[in-house]
Protein backbone atom coordinates (compact mmCIF):
# COMPACT_ATOMS: atom_id res chain seq x y z
CA UNK A 1 0.00 0.00 0.00
CA UNK A 2 2.83 2.36 0.96
CA UNK A 3 4.60 1.50 -2.31
CA UNK A 4 1.42 2.30 -4.26
CA UNK A 5 1.06 5.63 -2.46
CA UNK A 6 4.67 6.48 -3.17
CA UNK A 7 4.24 5.49 -6.80
CA UNK A 8 1.14 7.66 -7.02
CA UNK A 9 2.98 10.59 -5.48
CA UNK A 10 5.88 10.09 -7.85
CA UNK A 11 3.55 10.02 -10.85
CA UNK A 12 1.80 13.17 -9.66
CA UNK A 13 5.17 14.87 -9.26
CA UNK A 14 6.22 13.86 -12.77
CA UNK A 15 2.94 15.13 -14.24
CA UNK A 16 3.28 18.39 -12.35
CA UNK A 17 6.84 18.83 -13.60
CA UNK A 18 5.72 18.05 -17.15
CA UNK A 19 2.90 20.56 -16.93
CA UNK A 20 5.31 23.15 -15.59
CA UNK A 21 7.74 22.47 -18.42
CA UNK A 22 4.98 22.70 -21.01
CA UNK A 23 3.77 26.03 -19.65
CA UNK A 24 7.35 27.31 -19.39
CA UNK A 25 7.83 26.68 -23.10
CA UNK A 26 5.23 29.33 -23.97
CA UNK A 27 5.92 31.73 -21.09
CA UNK A 28 8.08 34.63 -22.25
CA UNK A 29 7.10 37.09 -19.52
CA UNK A 30 10.67 37.19 -18.17
CA UNK A 31 11.89 38.56 -21.51
CA UNK A 32 9.39 41.43 -21.70
CA UNK A 33 11.05 44.89 -21.48
CA UNK A 34 10.33 46.61 -18.18
CA UNK A 35 8.16 49.44 -19.51
CA UNK A 36 5.71 47.01 -21.10
CA UNK A 37 5.77 44.67 -18.10
CA UNK A 38 5.03 47.62 -15.80
CA UNK A 39 2.15 48.73 -18.02
CA UNK A 40 0.78 45.19 -18.08
CA UNK A 41 -0.50 45.60 -21.59
CA UNK A 42 0.51 45.55 -25.24
CA UNK A 43 -1.19 48.26 -27.31
CA UNK A 44 -1.77 46.84 -30.78
CA UNK A 45 -2.93 48.90 -33.74
CA UNK A 46 -5.02 47.44 -36.53
CA UNK A 47 -7.18 48.52 -39.45
CA UNK A 48 -10.02 45.96 -39.37
CA UNK A 49 -11.14 46.11 -42.99
CA UNK A 50 -9.17 43.24 -44.49
CA UNK A 51 -10.55 39.72 -43.97
CA UNK A 52 -9.30 37.15 -43.18
CA UNK A 53 -6.48 39.06 -41.50
CA UNK A 54 -8.52 41.57 -39.51
CA UNK A 55 -12.18 42.51 -39.68
CA UNK A 56 -15.23 43.09 -37.50
CA UNK A 57 -17.91 40.48 -37.07
CA UNK A 58 -20.96 42.19 -38.61
CA UNK A 59 -23.26 40.79 -35.93
CA UNK A 60 -21.17 41.49 -32.82
CA UNK A 61 -18.64 44.09 -34.05
CA UNK A 62 -16.00 41.91 -32.38
CA UNK A 63 -12.51 41.98 -33.89
CA UNK A 64 -11.70 38.75 -35.70
CA UNK A 65 -9.09 37.36 -38.05
CA UNK A 66 -5.68 35.77 -38.37
CA UNK A 67 -3.79 38.79 -37.00
CA UNK A 68 -6.23 39.14 -34.12
CA UNK A 69 -5.76 35.52 -33.04
CA UNK A 70 -1.98 35.67 -33.44
CA UNK A 71 -1.66 38.92 -31.46
CA UNK A 72 -3.89 37.65 -28.65
CA UNK A 73 -1.74 34.51 -28.34
CA UNK A 74 1.42 36.65 -28.41
CA UNK A 75 -0.01 38.74 -25.57
CA UNK A 76 -0.85 35.61 -23.58
CA UNK A 77 2.68 34.24 -23.90
CA UNK A 78 4.15 37.60 -22.93
CA UNK A 79 1.86 37.83 -19.91
CA UNK A 80 0.37 41.07 -21.24
CA UNK A 81 -3.22 42.10 -21.93
CA UNK A 82 -3.70 43.10 -25.57
CA UNK A 83 -5.28 46.55 -25.87
CA UNK A 84 -6.59 47.07 -29.41
CA UNK A 85 -6.54 50.43 -31.15
CA UNK A 86 -8.40 50.69 -34.44
CA UNK A 87 -7.12 53.21 -36.96
CA UNK A 88 -6.69 53.70 -40.66
CA UNK A 89 -3.92 51.65 -42.22
CA UNK A 90 -1.91 54.69 -43.31
CA UNK A 91 -1.71 55.90 -39.67
CA UNK A 92 -0.07 52.77 -38.28
CA UNK A 93 3.59 53.57 -38.94
CA UNK A 94 3.26 57.08 -37.54
CA UNK A 95 1.45 55.69 -34.49
CA UNK A 96 4.34 53.29 -33.89
CA UNK A 97 6.89 56.09 -34.31
CA UNK A 98 5.07 58.33 -31.81
CA UNK A 99 4.43 55.50 -29.29
CA UNK A 100 0.65 55.64 -29.58
CA UNK A 101 0.79 51.91 -30.24
CA UNK A 102 3.40 49.28 -29.35
CA UNK A 103 2.82 46.87 -32.23
CA UNK A 104 1.09 47.01 -35.59
CA UNK A 105 -0.92 43.93 -36.59
CA UNK A 106 -2.65 44.67 -39.85
CA UNK A 107 -1.20 42.61 -42.68
CA UNK A 108 1.65 45.12 -43.05
CA UNK A 109 3.87 44.17 -45.96
CA UNK A 110 7.55 44.46 -45.10
CA UNK A 111 9.15 46.70 -47.75
CA UNK A 112 12.35 48.80 -47.62
CA UNK A 113 10.52 52.15 -47.67
CA UNK A 114 8.63 51.27 -44.49
CA UNK A 115 11.81 50.13 -42.72
CA UNK A 116 13.03 53.72 -42.55
CA UNK A 117 10.83 54.19 -39.46
CA UNK A 118 9.62 50.69 -38.64
CA UNK A 119 11.05 47.26 -37.88
CA UNK A 120 9.16 44.14 -38.91
CA UNK A 121 8.82 40.63 -37.57
CA UNK A 122 7.91 38.79 -40.77
CA UNK A 123 5.46 35.99 -40.06
CA UNK A 124 3.74 35.03 -43.34
CA UNK A 125 4.21 35.23 -47.08
CA UNK A 126 1.78 37.12 -49.27
CA UNK A 127 1.49 38.33 -52.83
CA UNK A 128 -0.23 40.89 -55.05
CA UNK A 129 -2.99 39.17 -56.99
CA UNK A 130 -4.80 40.49 -60.06
CA UNK A 131 -8.45 39.48 -60.33
CA UNK A 132 -11.62 40.28 -62.23
CA UNK A 133 -15.28 39.22 -62.34
CA UNK A 134 -17.13 36.92 -64.72
CA UNK A 135 -18.91 39.08 -67.26
CA UNK A 136 -16.52 41.98 -66.69
CA UNK A 137 -13.08 40.66 -67.61
CA UNK A 138 -13.80 37.39 -69.39
CA UNK A 139 -10.92 38.01 -71.81
CA UNK A 140 -8.39 38.38 -68.98
CA UNK A 141 -6.66 35.01 -68.67
CA UNK A 142 -2.97 35.90 -68.24
CA UNK A 143 -1.51 38.68 -66.12
CA UNK A 144 -0.27 40.57 -69.19
CA UNK A 145 -3.86 40.76 -70.41
CA UNK A 146 -4.45 43.64 -67.97
CA UNK A 147 -1.85 45.83 -69.72
CA UNK A 148 -3.67 48.84 -71.15
CA UNK A 149 -6.76 48.12 -69.02
CA UNK A 150 -8.22 50.05 -66.05
CA UNK A 151 -7.13 48.29 -62.84
CA UNK A 152 -8.41 49.40 -59.42
CA UNK A 153 -5.91 49.46 -56.56
CA UNK A 154 -5.43 51.02 -53.12
CA UNK A 155 -3.05 53.97 -53.53
CA UNK A 156 -1.83 53.69 -49.90
CA UNK A 157 -0.37 50.21 -49.78
CA UNK A 158 2.01 47.73 -51.31
CA UNK A 159 -0.38 46.65 -54.07
CA UNK A 160 -0.03 49.95 -55.95
CA UNK A 161 3.76 49.72 -55.70
CA UNK A 162 3.75 46.15 -57.00
CA UNK A 163 1.28 47.01 -59.77
CA UNK A 164 3.62 49.78 -60.94
CA UNK A 165 6.53 47.32 -60.83
CA UNK A 166 4.45 44.90 -62.91
CA UNK A 167 3.71 47.64 -65.43
CA UNK A 168 7.44 48.33 -65.85
CA UNK A 169 8.62 44.72 -65.92
CA UNK A 170 5.82 43.20 -67.97
CA UNK A 171 3.73 45.73 -69.86
CA UNK A 172 6.53 48.08 -70.92
CA UNK A 173 9.05 45.27 -71.33
CA UNK A 174 6.71 43.56 -73.79
CA UNK A 175 5.85 46.86 -75.55
CA UNK A 176 2.27 46.60 -74.32
CA UNK A 177 0.12 49.59 -73.27
CA UNK A 178 0.49 50.86 -69.71
CA UNK A 179 -1.92 49.79 -67.00
CA UNK A 180 -4.58 52.43 -66.39
CA UNK A 181 -4.56 52.96 -62.62
CA UNK A 182 -7.91 53.48 -60.91
CA UNK A 183 -6.71 54.70 -57.51
CA UNK A 184 -8.78 54.40 -54.33
CA UNK A 185 -8.11 54.88 -50.62
CA UNK A 186 -9.14 51.43 -49.37
CA UNK A 187 -8.72 47.93 -50.75
CA UNK A 188 -12.45 47.30 -50.33
CA UNK A 189 -13.05 50.29 -52.62
CA UNK A 190 -10.92 48.64 -55.31
CA UNK A 191 -13.33 45.72 -55.34
CA UNK A 192 -16.23 48.17 -55.46
CA UNK A 193 -14.76 49.85 -58.56
CA UNK A 194 -14.63 46.42 -60.20
CA UNK A 195 -18.18 45.54 -59.14
CA UNK A 196 -19.42 48.87 -60.52
CA UNK A 197 -17.43 48.21 -63.72
CA UNK A 198 -15.33 51.36 -63.43
CA UNK A 199 -12.40 48.95 -63.76
CA UNK A 200 -12.08 45.58 -65.47
CA UNK A 201 -9.62 44.22 -62.91
CA UNK A 202 -8.31 44.95 -59.43
CA UNK A 203 -5.23 44.11 -57.36
CA UNK A 204 -4.96 43.12 -53.71
CA UNK A 205 -3.41 40.48 -51.46
CA UNK A 206 -3.79 36.90 -52.62
CA UNK A 207 -4.69 35.86 -49.07
CA UNK A 208 -7.67 38.20 -48.81
CA UNK A 209 -9.10 37.70 -52.28
CA UNK A 210 -8.84 33.92 -51.99
CA UNK A 211 -10.62 34.02 -48.64
CA UNK A 212 -13.41 36.27 -49.95
CA UNK A 213 -13.84 34.17 -53.08
CA UNK A 214 -13.55 30.69 -51.54
CA UNK A 215 -14.71 30.86 -47.91
CA UNK A 216 -18.10 29.20 -47.34
CA UNK A 217 -19.32 32.03 -45.14
CA UNK A 218 -18.24 34.83 -47.48
CA UNK A 219 -20.91 37.02 -49.07
CA UNK A 220 -18.55 37.31 -52.07
CA UNK A 221 -18.01 33.57 -52.54
CA UNK A 222 -17.50 32.80 -56.24
CA UNK A 223 -17.87 36.44 -57.27
CA UNK A 224 -14.32 36.94 -58.54
CA UNK A 225 -11.90 35.27 -60.95
CA UNK A 226 -8.18 35.25 -60.22
CA UNK A 227 -5.93 36.17 -63.13
CA UNK A 228 -2.83 33.97 -63.22
CA UNK A 229 -0.41 33.79 -60.31
CA UNK A 230 0.49 36.69 -57.97
CA UNK A 231 2.57 39.33 -59.77
CA UNK A 232 4.86 39.69 -56.71
CA UNK A 233 5.60 37.78 -53.50
CA UNK A 234 6.35 39.62 -50.26
CA UNK A 235 6.42 39.02 -46.52
CA UNK A 236 3.98 40.55 -44.07
CA UNK A 237 5.17 41.53 -40.62
CA UNK A 238 4.16 42.84 -37.23
CA UNK A 239 5.42 46.42 -37.02
CA UNK A 240 7.51 47.96 -34.23
CA UNK A 241 9.13 51.32 -33.58
CA UNK A 242 12.90 51.36 -34.12
CA UNK A 243 13.29 52.21 -30.42
CA UNK A 244 11.52 49.00 -29.40
CA UNK A 245 13.99 46.43 -30.74
CA UNK A 246 13.81 44.42 -27.49
CA UNK A 247 10.05 44.05 -27.82
CA UNK A 248 10.46 43.20 -31.50
CA UNK A 249 12.90 40.41 -30.68
CA UNK A 250 10.83 38.83 -27.91
CA UNK A 251 7.75 38.86 -30.17
CA UNK A 252 9.82 37.09 -32.83
CA UNK A 253 10.81 34.51 -30.18
CA UNK A 254 7.15 34.05 -29.29
CA UNK A 255 6.05 33.55 -32.90
CA UNK A 256 8.86 31.05 -33.46
CA UNK A 257 7.66 29.15 -30.37
CA UNK A 258 4.14 29.12 -31.85
CA UNK A 259 5.54 27.72 -35.10
CA UNK A 260 7.46 25.05 -33.18
CA UNK A 261 4.53 23.85 -31.05
CA UNK A 262 1.91 23.89 -33.82
CA UNK A 263 -0.21 26.78 -32.53
CA UNK A 264 0.77 28.89 -35.55
CA UNK A 265 -0.35 26.17 -38.00
CA UNK A 266 -3.68 25.76 -36.18
CA UNK A 267 -4.41 29.49 -36.45
CA UNK A 268 -3.49 29.57 -40.15
CA UNK A 269 -5.70 26.52 -40.76
CA UNK A 270 -8.61 28.21 -38.96
CA UNK A 271 -8.42 31.13 -41.40
CA UNK A 272 -7.82 28.91 -44.45
CA UNK A 273 -4.33 30.27 -45.12
CA UNK A 274 -1.96 27.28 -44.89
CA UNK A 275 -0.29 28.36 -48.15
CA UNK A 276 0.98 31.52 -46.42
CA UNK A 277 2.86 29.82 -43.57
CA UNK A 278 6.59 30.30 -43.01
CA UNK A 279 9.02 27.97 -41.23
CA UNK A 280 10.59 30.72 -39.11
CA UNK A 281 10.27 34.45 -38.57
CA UNK A 282 12.52 37.01 -40.22
CA UNK A 283 13.49 40.50 -39.10
CA UNK A 284 13.16 43.11 -41.84
CA UNK A 285 13.26 40.41 -44.50
CA UNK A 286 16.41 38.75 -43.18
CA UNK A 287 16.75 35.38 -41.39
CA UNK A 288 17.38 35.76 -37.68
CA UNK A 289 20.85 35.12 -36.29
CA UNK A 290 20.88 31.89 -34.31
Any chance you could write out the topology, listing elements then pairs?
Layout: H1 2-25, H2 34-39, E1 41-46, E2 49-50, E3 54-56, E4 63-64, H3 66-78, E5 81-86, H4 92-97, E6 103-109, E7 118-132, E8 150-154, H5 158-172, E9 180-184, H6 187-195, E10 201-205, H7 206-214, E11 225-226, E12 232-241, H8 245-261, H9 263-270, E13 282-283, E14 286-287
Parallel strand pairs: 1-5, 1-6, 8-9, 8-10
Antiparallel strand pairs: 2-3, 3-4, 6-12, 7-10, 7-11, 7-12, 7-13, 13-14
Helix pairs in contact: 3-8
Taking the sheet with the most strands, its summary is: 11 strands, mixed
The level-1 CATH class of the largest domain: Alpha Beta
Distance between the termini: 51 Å
**What form results from the Cα inertia axes?**
globular
Measured by DSSP, the beta-strand proportion falls in 15-25%
Secondary-structure element series: HHEEEEHEHEEEHEHEHEEHHEE
Taken together, the total number of domains comes to 2
Count of strand segments: 14
Gyration radius from CA atoms, angstroms: 22 Å
Indicate the CATH topology of the largest domain: D-Maltodextrin-Binding Protein, domain 2
What low-confidence regions span 5 or more consecutive residues with pLDDT below 50?
A: 1-22
Helical residue percent band: 25-40%
Put simply, the count of helices is 9
- Mean pLDDT, to the nearest integer, reads 92
Query: Which CATH architecture of the largest domain would you pick?
Result: 3-Layer(aba) Sandwich
Global structural class: alpha/beta
CATH superfamily of the largest domain: Periplasmic binding protein-like II
Amino acid sequence: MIRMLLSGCALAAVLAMAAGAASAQDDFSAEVPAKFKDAGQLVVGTSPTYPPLEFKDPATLELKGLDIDLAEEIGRRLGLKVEWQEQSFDQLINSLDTSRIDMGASGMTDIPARREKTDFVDYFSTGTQLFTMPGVGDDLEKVEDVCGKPVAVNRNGIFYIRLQDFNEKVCKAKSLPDVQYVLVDKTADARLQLIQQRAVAAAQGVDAIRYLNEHEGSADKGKFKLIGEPVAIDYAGFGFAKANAELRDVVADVVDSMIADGTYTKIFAKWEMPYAEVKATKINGEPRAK
